[in-house]
């Protein structure tokens, strides 16, 4: 195997890791500063969001008729939304404010996207894990039926977020229309993304339509992992993986195109 | 060595594509000092960015087998909302240089005092220039790319830059871009003239100067 990886590739990998690390530190400092809790906002912010939504849904008695426990339902659903929404939002228009950094040869368009993705994915993941452990500890949530399936579903959602982030981040550099349209899409996708319903609760015709929405498969799988056989879930891993693969490929190609177009300040 | 092979650069503008550099060839050896003369807008800065790798050529190749600095132009290259010190840390991380020894050097060289711990956006343009120059001197390169160095700072700082660059680093390669013939004549062994997107290379500086003057 070692022969397949050239020395040049290894050297490039080391440089890229170093650059992404540097961008990550810089990103945390510019966004959160050194005041109050500093970098902890990375996951405290999504935690507050999730808590707020969980509280609101409890008041609205969402899912009550399906005898599902609201806290776990909100946690699995809203964390998924936060993951893809924040990751993509941070890639959107990420290049322009960082143009001055492109003065340094090794700082590439893709590194800026990846640094922001790492930060958002970590934030959403830590938030989900910490809140789950907290609610389990105080007895408001039971332990998941199958942690491994949850991890797998989460990784699939991360894959989706990375691919979509690269695509939106790259095309937002070409046209400001993307930024405006993207916000509308995010807003509309929230209720359609599987966070606020389970496919099984819906009429058959609607199920078929909603199963075209990629992230629905991720959320359903995540809930399958959490609730186990106790709920009926509908998801197609092959479909979700295919969408993710296409998004990632298109995203990488577009990021490369963007690299050729950027002109540092 | 840096070799620039058949490099062209086309920018998209509102009036259609504009070719800024056309089929440029240049080789820079270790320790060599090359001057590039050109009027404003001749494409000097574009060429230096292509050499640094900050931008990619539309066609052709730039190969580097020695470490090359970013274009030292006293602006750009840092983030306004971060402090001078955070910018230093960022640059050290990007280039894989140790942060520890760089801090006292930048403190002493930039003369910014407590301002090093203030966001760069609060700096005056002179302070920014001092920080930018100090940052670029804090990391060791085989080749320095210098874009219009002459225009900066008061005479005392000018003197310091001169010592740091041309005395302490006299064995390093340099590419110096300027519209000042005197500056190029003082520091370079070879020179090239950039006009209308093409680069004319001369073995002797005075030949380049003659050509440059003959054009105007």
Give an account of the 3D structure.
- The complex is a heterodimer of chains A (265) and B (216).
- Chain A is built from 9 helices and no strands.
- Chain A has 265 residues and is mainly α.
- In chain A, α1 crosses α4 (109-137), α2 crosses α4 (109-137) and α3 runs antiparallel to α4.
- The relative contact order of chain A is 0.13.
- Chain B has helices at 44-52, 84-95, 99-110, 125-138, 155-167, 181-187, 205-215, and strands at residues 2-13, 16-28, 33-37, 59-64, 68-72, 143-147, 173-178, 190-195, 198-202.
- A 6-stranded mixed β-sheet of chain B has the order 5-6-7-3-8-9, with helices on both faces.
- In chain B, β8 and β9 (198-202) form a beta hairpin.
- The relative contact order of chain B is 0.20.
- Chain A binds chain B through residues 15, 18-19, 21-22, 25-26, 29-30, 100-107, 259-265, and chain B through 11-12, 49, 52-56, 68, 70-71, 75-79, 81-82, 86, 89-91, 93-96.
Largest interchain contact? A-B, 24 and 26 residues
Secondary structure: helix percent of chain B: 25-40%
Query: Distance between the terminal alpha carbons of chain B, to the nearest Å?
Result: 33 Å
What's the number of helices of chain B?
A: 7
- Principal-axis shape of chain B equals globular
- Structural class of chain A comes to mainly alpha
Rg value of chain A: 20 Å
- The chain-level structural class of chain B is alpha/beta
Q: Biggest sheet of chain B, open or closed, and with what strands and sense?
A: 6 strands, mixed
Low-confidence stretches of chain A: none
- The order of strands across the largest sheet of chain B is 5-6-7-3-8-9
User: What portion of residues of chain A is helical?
Assistant: over 70%
- Tally of DSSP helical segments of chain A: 9
Radius of gyration of chain B: 18 Å
Percentage of residues in DSSP E strands of chain A: under 5%
What is the overall pLDDT average of chain A? 92
Tag the structure with descriptive keywords:
heterodimer, A: 265 residues, mainly alpha, B: alpha/beta
């Amino acid at each position: 195997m070692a022969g397949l990886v050239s020395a040049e590739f290894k050297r490039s990998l080391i440089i890229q890791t170093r650059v992404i690390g540097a961008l990550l530190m810089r990103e945390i400092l510019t966004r959160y500063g050194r005041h109050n809790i500093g970098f902890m906002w990375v996951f405290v912010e999504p935690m507050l969001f999730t808590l707020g939504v969980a509280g609101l849904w409890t008041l609205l008695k969402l899912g009550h008729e399906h005898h599902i426990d609201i806290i776990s339902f909100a946690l699995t659903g809203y964390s998924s939304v936060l993951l893809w929404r924040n990751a993509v939002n941070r890639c959107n228009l990420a290049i322009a404010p960082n143009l001055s950094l492109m003065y340094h040869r090794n700082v590439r368009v893709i590194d800026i996207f990846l640094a922001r993705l790492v930060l958002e994915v970590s934030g959403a993941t830590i938030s989900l894990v910490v809140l789950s452990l907290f609610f389990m500890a105080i007895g408001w949530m039971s332990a998941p039926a199958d942690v491994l399936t949850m991890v797998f579903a989460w990784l699939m959602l991360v894959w989706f977020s990375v691919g979509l982030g690269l695509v939106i981040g790259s095309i937002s550099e070409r046209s400001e229309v993307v930024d405006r349209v993207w916000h509308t899409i995010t807003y509309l996708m929230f209720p359609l993304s599987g966070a606020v319903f389970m496919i099984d609760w819906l009429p058959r015709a609607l199920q078929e339509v909603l199963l075209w929405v990629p992230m629905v498969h991720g959320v359903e799988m995540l809930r399958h992992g959490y609730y186990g056989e106790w709920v009926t879930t509908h998801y197609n891993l092959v479909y979700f993986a295919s969408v993710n693969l296409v998004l990632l490929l298109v995203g990488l190609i577009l990021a490369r195109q963007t690299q050729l177009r950027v002109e540092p300040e | 060595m840096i070799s620039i092979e058949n490099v062209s650069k086309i920018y998209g503008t509102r009036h259609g594509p504009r070719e800024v550099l056309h089929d440029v060839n240049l080789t820079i050896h270790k320790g060599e000092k090359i001057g590039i003369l050109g009027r404003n807008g001749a494409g000097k800065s574009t060429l230096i960015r292509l050499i640094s790798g900050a931008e990619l050529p539309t066609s052709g190749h730039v190969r580097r087998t020695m470490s090359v600095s970013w274009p030292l132009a006293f602006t750009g290259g840092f983030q306004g909302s971060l402090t001078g010190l955070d910018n230093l840390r960022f640059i050290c991380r990007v280039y894989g240089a140790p942060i520890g020894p760089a801090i006292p050097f930048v403190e002493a060289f930039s003369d910014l005092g407590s301002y090093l711990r203030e966001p760069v956006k609060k700096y005056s343009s002179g302070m920014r220039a001092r920080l930018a120059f100090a940052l670029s001197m804090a990391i060791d390169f085989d080749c320095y790319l210098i874009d219009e160095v002459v225009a900066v700072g008061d005479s005392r700082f000018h003197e310091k830059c001169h010592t740091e660059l041309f005395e302490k680093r006299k064995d390093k390669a340099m590419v110096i871009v300027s519209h000042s013939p005197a500056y190029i004549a003082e520091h370079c062994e070879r020179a090239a003239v950039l006009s209308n997107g093409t680069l004319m290379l001369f073995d002797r500086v005075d030949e380049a100067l003659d050509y440059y003057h003959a054009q105007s």
